[in-house]
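Supplementary Text 2. Reproducibility record for the structural model of the 265-residue chain.

All settings were left at their defaults, and a single model was retained for analysis rather than an ensemble. We include the record here because the model underlies the residue-level annotations in Supplementary Table 4.
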Amino acid sequence: MSEQNKKEGAVGSLERGLLIIRTLLDAPGPLSLAELAHELGLGPSTVHRLLGTLTELGHVVREPGGKRYLAAPQVLAPLSFQHPITQVRLACRPAIEELRERTGETSAFVLFIGHERLVQDFVIGQRLLAPNYQTWLRSPTHGSASGKLLLSTIPEKNWADLIGQEPYQAHTPSTITTHDEMAAEIQAIRTQHYCVSKNEAYDGVSAFGYPVAVLGKTVGCITLTVDSASLNAAREEVLIQEMLRCVKSIQTASGSLKLLHDWLF
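Retained model, structure tokens:
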């Protein structure tokens, strides 16, 4: 086998191995070899070989006394208790819970990892408006509160890396689609230090965001997801003030936030 073929074979095996891990993570329970082969459209012998390698490496474990497989603990919870993200999540959880209790809305703490958004923690509110929350937040960057707050930390010349060229995709009739509108929106966010996104990513759903900064660097934001029909000017002001209260509470966890700052920057 040529060196090129070996490399291509390694890449193919890596991709299929990662697909196995992803499938196990998304599954409602352990899966058998036959179930994995069917789900992935691969031959049982190929899946068996890959499972053997993943098991040896500690990424997959076999069900005790059975023939089914599931993701290993290091895949399910890869971060150590000493990792800055873990430390911040533990320290800030009470503030997120209090925000939900005081507002009744779904609250979340989103970290900015490079140009991506990581939902570090969230608490579902009484209206259950959280069907799109995953660890890696993929809501439209130009139509969400967290996304626009992330854009506000990035030079304008680099926005296209996140949202492409105008006209930007319209997810609803309210989505901003032009660069000039977005520039004005980001300038307003930088001036008022919070963001409100009404029906821009999903019809009937509004999002509020407030940045969390450490040593002059924005490390993420607090968000609230709200039923748009419940809003009026007075309600909006209450939500904004409650987010500010939450951010101030989070910033008292100075030790863990400093660790996070040093890790990110």
